[in-house]
Amino acid sequence: MTAAETERDGVRTIEAGAVPARFARGWHCLGLSERFKDGRPHTVDAFGAKLVVFRSGDGRLNVLDAYCRHMGGDLSRGTVKGDEIACPFHDWRWGGDGRCKKIPYARRVPLRARTSAWTTMDQDGMLFVWNDPEGNPPPPGVTIPRIEGATRDDWTDWVWHETLVAANCREVMDNVVDMAHFFYVHYSFPTYFKNVFEGHVATQIMKGLSRPDARPPAKEGRPGMLGNTSVAAYHGPSFMIDDLTYHYEGMDIDCVLINCHYPVDADSFVLQSGIIVQRNERLGSAGADEMAVRLGAFILKGFEQDVEIWKNKARVDNPLLCEEDGPVYQLRRWYEQFYVDAADVAPEMVERFEFELDTTRPVGAWKKEVEENLARRAAAGGGTA
Amino acid sequence: MTARPDERLLDGPPMSPVRCRACGAAVRARKASWQQTSIQWSAEAVETCLERRASVPGDGPNGDLFPACEALRESIVRAALDGELPVPDDAGDG
Ligand code: FES
Ligand SMILES: [Fe+2]
Fold first, then answer.
1. In terms of domains, do A243 and A362 share one?
2. What parts of chain A have a pLDDT lower than 70?
3. What is the Cα–Cα distance from A77 to A61, expressed in whole angstroms?
4. Which residues form a coiled coil (chain A) (predicted)?
């Protein structure tokens, strides 16, 4: 065997099966609920369909398949009339439960006049829909935890952003376990990293330092950022709540960051971020609002850094991992539970798994890299970045 | 899209059985280094764990998280020190 052949045989191939044909079972956030409450129908492309979101006269938020079962009119271009959405084509009236309630020009509504309706939940300022390909309601215990700060005066309002991403949503899930990318893609500096998967919840615990080489020095009179402590958990397949504290010189800032998405189709998803910041004496009331806006923009930039990677990368079912990588395969095993029928959820998908990463080696390498970057900046007469 | 096995378990140490010295819960654990630990629990082990049972939910939206059992952590360290749980040599580092 020649050397070339040996090498050839040892070539690692990237394997990738088709993206899943169905959409995850679970609660998905469609955005801040306020924007759907203007009495007009809204179009949302999600779960491979076109949905209509509308608030009925009784104040409830409803989500239906947008295509009218009569002749296919687009209900999201219709009008809210009382408790129903009226189709712009022939004025059939559809209720939030998916049933046609009335056809003004007909003596009676035909049998089978029923369309798909999604279970909705309006909680802490966000609209959620329950997606289940099997059509079952959410089981008890499968909930989105309450976020106290979202309804409290000593916290800011949500600063919310959304972005359409042309990739399968598994890419965003992988971030849960991907410690190293936080250094290389997001210019942060993880020093502690642990994952816990259990039931329908996947958690990432991370502590990090700020990167003096990646940001200009703090402005005069503004405290410099030292680092952060984060406990971030996916409650189901798409909604992550990050209990996040930024450590500044002389103060801590407590935030709750939402990182969530809903699939548009198999190859794209809408990625959303929301942040609220707790007001404190040092920050002042206006300071907290300003901080929320600034952090919101900062997090959006983080998303853009991810998106830049995702739109150019390959989908990989067999990532090649070193020991300093997180538990990618175990995360995907956990994630799989949302793509099989409820009866087929295997114990290993939901059984508790813990992974605590040894950051000794990465931290050493990254310290060196940061120092080199700072030295290079200084040599270039920098500091004014 | 069935999840595949983690090749690191074939190329490095496998998951090995460890028992908690406090409650007897049987888990599988793996150490990739002295500081790096994976723990695979079963539903039965979770039910057996005393610290888990005694834990109260913390504050905040992720307060239900049970971050770790200290007794199990110590048991794993002991298993590693006693040579029952392999810990790869650091010599090959770099
Ligand atoms: S298509 Fe909707 S009423 Fe005819
Ligand atoms: Fe990322």
1. yes
2. 1-8, 382-385
3. 17
4. none
